[in-house]
Design brief:
This protein is α+β, with helices and mostly antiparallel strands and 348 residues long. Helix content is 19%, strand content 30%. It folds into two domains: 211 residues, Alpha-D-Glucose-1,6-Bisphosphate, Chain A, domain 4; 96 residues, Rieske [2Fe-2S] iron-sulphur domain (Rieske Iron-sulfur Protein). It has six helices and 17 strands. The radius of gyration is 22 Å and the shape is globular. The protein starts with 21 loop residues before the first strand and ends in a 6-residue tail after the last helix.
């Protein structure tokens, strides 16, 4: 997309000027905004989703937020039908393995951690994260915002040493938060939701206005790299009344269960929103469930952002609330898509 990056109907210069807020010139009623259904072609969204499914993941799955795993107790998660326990060793590094004690099957997520060792609360069996009989540890990765586990038997792909991570802003100059929800759908339904940016101003009118989407840069050229399969979106975030913050964002899918939104122009340029879909049920489950783990990593080159970072503890709940509100709608989208797919009634 070339030319003026301002969403239509806003005053002033681009969002990188002195003041991020703009006033919309001609606010229109929701029902009078420009329809996007002609551009949001089911075949385009489905093809982009299919290409995402073909990219390697290295068998890595997101577990949750880094800050959720403490040193004194473990965290229990279910991924693809497997019960998993994860905790921190004495060195602070992640440890993970099956969630059932190898002795008599106790739920290890309910057991304490002492000096980096997980001690079963049924009979005192101690696990330091190394193999113990049939109990075999899983590879883990902590990227500073999210924790990951590698499940080679589930993924069935060639293993990678680390997850496929998108570029991120410097975490020491950012504010990061993570929100998690779940729904009755499969990961591909979550990915398809995020690869449909056209629904933003219609489905989330409380947050977005003046949305336009450029054609896929790689549509129809046979490429399968995420940079050749990017949706470029000009949109304004609503603040209140006529006040908006215009930005340009680029959506890509670097691996089968992840969609990333990079803000490339406007307020918060360099910020990232990562949406990760983790299957909770085993493949082929009649009633699938998927966890959506969304990481928002906000940054800005404005001097005032330094002060905002100093109040990150107060800022994070507001960021989580905004993301959670959007996902209350979007999980319904993903669930509806799965319901139609599962009965052969999906459009297109």
């Amino acid at each position: 997309m070339t030319g003026d990056s301002r969403p239509h109907g806003t005053h002033g210069t681009r969002g990188t000027g002195r003041f991020p807020l703009r006033l919309r010139r001609r606010p229109v009623a929701w029902e009078h905004q420009r329809p996007t259904w002609r551009e949001a072609r089911p075949a385009v969204i489905a093809a982009a989703s299919k290409r995402a499914q073909s990219r390697p993941s290295g068998n890595w799955y997101v577990l949750g937020a880094t800050r959720d795993i403490r040193g004194d107790r473990p965290l229990g998660r279910t991924v693809a039908g497997l019960e998993i326990v994860v905790w921190r060793g004495a060195d602070g590094a992640l440890r993970a393995g099956p969630g059932a004690c190898p002795h008599l099957g106790a739920p290890l997520k309910d057991s304490p951690v002492r000096c980096g060792t997980l001690i079963c609360h049924w009979h005192g069996l101690a696990l330091d994260g190394g193999p113990f009989g049939a109990w075999q540890p899983y590879p883990t990765y902590d990227d500073g915002v999210l924790t990951w586990v590698r499940l080679d038997d589930v993924g069935g792909e060639p293993a990678l040493d680390r997850p496929v991570l998108p570029p991120r802003p410097d975490l020491t100059r950012s504010v990061a938060t993570v929100v998690t929800t779940s729904g009755r759908c499969e990961p591909e339904d979550v990915v398809a939701n995020r690869l449909d940016p056209w629904h933003g101003a219609w489905f989330h009118p409380y947050s977005f206005v003046d949305l336009t989407v450029a054609p896929l840069s790689g549509e129809g050229d046979g490429q399968d790299g995420p940079e050749d399969d990017a949706f470029t979106v000009d949109v304004s975030f609503k603040v209140g009344g006529r006040a908006v913050v215009p930005v340009r964002a680029v959506f890509t899918a670097p691996e089968p269960r992840t969609v990333v939104m990079h803000i490339t122009h406007g307020e918060g340029a360099g910020s990232v929103v990562e949406t990760h879909a983790t299957p909770l049920t085993a493949a082929g489950a009649g009633q699938p469930r998927t966890a959506v783990v969304e990481a928002v990593i906000a940054t800005s080159d404005r001097p005032g952002f330094v002060a905002a970072r100093a109040t990150a503890a107060a800022l994070r709940p507001l960021m989580r609330a905004a993301a959670a509100r959007l996902w209350r709608d979007d999980i319904a989208y993903a669930e509806r898509r799965w319901a139609l797919r599962s009965t052969g009634r999906f459009p297109g």
